[in-house]
Amino acid sequence: MDIPKEESAMRALSITLLAVLMGATFFALWSLLSTQPFGHDEAVYLAKARSWIDGSPANEFGVYRPIGMAAFGWFFLQFGDTESTVRIFGALFSALGIGIIFLFFKRLANVWAALAVAVVVATSTLFLREAPQFLNDIPSSILLIASMWIIFVHFLSAGKSNIIYLAAPVAALAFYLRYGVVMAFLVIAGVSYLVLLPRFLKKDGVDFTRLGKTVLLFAALLVPHILHSIVTTQSFFGILRLGEDIAGRKYLGEGLVTYLEWLPGQLGGWVLEGAAILGILATLVILFIPKLRRAHGALLWTGSIGLYTFFLTGLLVHAEARYVFFPLVLLAGTGILSIYYFFEQWSKMAAHAAMAIVVLGSLYAGSAHYRETELFYAGKETDVYRLAYLEAADALKADSGSNGCSLWAITTYRPALAWYSKCNTYSVTTKARFERDRAFNPEKKMYSIVLTKVSGGQLDAEIATEFGASLSEVFRSSNSGYRGDLIVYRIDEMMPSPTMIPNTLLSTTTATST
């Protein structure tokens, strides 16, 4: 069947815009790839990936950590272990993500609105700072949006499209990258039931067969996780509960309070946040006006998922901008599409002109965001605190020899030290725990990392005496930031403890990942 010329031209335009968006995004992120030392979460996943390759320690990879990022790390480590090489993962996945965002909103509206949404997201400070790193938040968010795209295409086909079969592996991959997406799954399912299902049932010849098979396939793909959870925690949901315990919030809703303080301007840039705020308002207006609710079901669906996910993330987890990338994209997209439909009441030309203004404004703001991001990464590369830890890791490798070492340190930089030194890492808690940990690797030399202005959570001279340990200094960095000197001690020998130390937990320093 011949395709009309106008439709053929639009397809060609869509393909061209898709290629340009993905290509430009990749090269922009590639130029931002940083040589800054790996941060907390990056080092956790990469140390686990390396352990599969050469058997090096990966103590910091707790059972609550998803295995997907380590699997991607294993793949990229085949090409090199430098910071910029491994972080190509983020540039590639994020470029693909901008393409998926474009395709999703094109299906919801049209090419021009989709282009505006994709450009607003790609030029935001949140995207530019987080995308070129080895982290799971943006990749898992992209896969969630891909799942929504698949669901919406299936909805439009009245259940007859086979594309729905892709939803199960895409959603499962998102889950194995970040267990926290379970909350988004529940929101997507709930809002889809309330908003899309009634409209779905009104279509001619609706078919639930493919959707049912997809649900079963998704459940089957989660079986390995369920079995792992039962074996390691004796609970069906044990691993997910462990992840919730690690959420780090001080009180219920701490993240939400912080996000509201950051708005507008400090969460992802003025354009993205302005569009997201407009998206919240548009969602509420559509929800309470029946005429708009009937006319804009897709916007209500997208905006509601974004709004509920944003609220629940802020309610249950401490604030990190990257945690709310998924809802911010949905809310910003809803806001931009509401602008399009508002101007479309007068003419399509006016709506297209509005989208052109959004794109040009985003590109203008994006140039400033790009320069800010360059400076941000340059500062990370010269940060004295991070560089001090690299020097400490080099000192550990030089002093311990080829057998590696056992290392006790505060929480914050244990993963990075594990990656750069290839040492086993342990926390400082009780004397009995200390003696148990050192017994795991008796052939390895033992060390302690101490920050002079930090109290608790580290094996300093006072605690060493209580534990019956003798320390000798092998390295000191006198320029390691506001936490004081960074000292590497070798634990040379064990002496009888002068007093009986109660087997109670010592104070530890709580720190968030950076």
Plain-language structure description:
- By secondary structure, the protein is α/β, with parallel strands linked by helices.
- 64% of the residues lie in helices and 6% in strands.
- It is built from 23 helices and 5 strands.
- It has a 5-stranded mixed β-sheet, sandwiched between helices.
- Strand 4 and strand 5 (486-494) form a beta hairpin.
- The protein is elongated and about 80 Å long.
The share of residues in helices is 55-70%
The low-confidence parts are 496-514
Which structural class best describes the helix and strand composition? alpha/beta
Q: What is the molecular shape?
A: elongated
Beta percentage is 5-15%
The largest β sheet comes out as: 5 strands, mixed
The secondary-structure element order is HHHHHHHHHHHHHHHHHHHHEHEHEHEE
Helix count, DSSP H or I runs of 4 or more residues: 23
Q: How many strand units?
A: 5
Q: What is the radius of gyration computed over CA atoms, rounded to a whole number of angstroms?
A: 26 Å
Q: What is the arithmetic mean of pLDDT?
A: 89
* N- and C-termini, Cα separation: 56 Å
Taking strands numbered 1, 2, ... along the chain, how are they ordered across the largest sheet? 2-1-3-5-4
Short précis:
The protein is an alpha/beta fold and 514 residues long.
Notable traits:
single chain, 514 residues, alpha/beta, five-stranded mixed beta sheet, 23 helices, 5 strands, disordered C terminus
SSE blueprint:
Elements: H1 5-32, H2 40-54, H3 68-77, H4 83-86, H5 88-108, H6 111-122, H7 125-130, H8 137-156, H9 167-177, H10 181-201, H11 209-221, H12 223-233, H13 238-245, H14 254-262, H15 270-288, H16 290-295, H17 297-316, H18 325-344, H19 348-381, H20 384-400, E1 405-408, H21 414-421, E2 424-426, H22 431-440, E3 445-451, H23 461-467, E4 469-477, E5 486-494
Parallel strand pairs: 1-2, 1-3
Antiparallel strand pairs: 3-5, 4-5
Helix pairs in contact: 1-5, 1-6, 2-3, 2-21, 5-6, 5-8, 6-18, 6-19, 8-9, 8-10, 9-11, 10-17, 14-17, 15-17, 15-18, 17-18, 18-19, 20-21
